């Protein structure tokens, strides 16, 4: 796990699970005020190279996709997750 700091406050974070022959980059986040400055990309590079002998993979939001495209990640599939708040139609 890595945390990017600016002016004594955490602005971004990333993590990697290295197993089964791959760097699984996960938990990438940058606070809104720090976006578009390269901090998240820097931590993505660090996480993707946790074990430099292995390839890296990640799941991306729509916002992150242009960054990962530029970094050379290859899009393999699209995944859509759905959320419904409790108490909506159908009970629950």
Please provide a written account of the structure.
It is a single chain. 18% of the residues lie in helices and 30% in strands. The protein is α+β, with helices and mostly antiparallel strands. The radius of gyration is 16 Å and the shape is globular. The mean pLDDT is 91.
List the main descriptive attributes of the protein structure presented here.
single chain; globular; 4 strands; about 90 residues; alpha+beta; Aminopeptidase; 4-stranded mixed β-sheet; 2 helices
Low confidence ranges: none
Structural class: alpha+beta
The 3D shape can be described as globular
CATH top level label: Alpha Beta
Percent in strands:
25-35%
Topology:
Blueprint: E1 2-6, E2 9-19, E3 22-30, H1 39-48, E4 56-58, H2 65-71
Parallel strand pairs: 3-4
Antiparallel strand pairs: 1-2, 2-3
Question: Can you describe this structure in just a few lines?
Answer:
Helices cover 18% and strands 30% of the residues. The chain is α+β, with helices and mostly antiparallel strands and 92 residues long.
């Amino acid at each position: 796990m890595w945390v990017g700091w600016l002016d004594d406050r955490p602005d971004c974070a990333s993590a990697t699970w290295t197993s089964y022959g791959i760097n699984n980059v996960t938990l990438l986040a940058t606070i809104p005020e720090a976006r578009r400055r390269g901090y998240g990309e820097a931590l993505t590079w660090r996480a993707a190279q946790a074990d430099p002998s292995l390839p890296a993979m990640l799941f991306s939001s729509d916002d992150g996709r242009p960054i990962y495209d530029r970094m050379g990640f290859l899009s393999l599939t699209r995944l859509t997750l759905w959320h419904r708040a409790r108490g909506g139609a159908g009970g629950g």
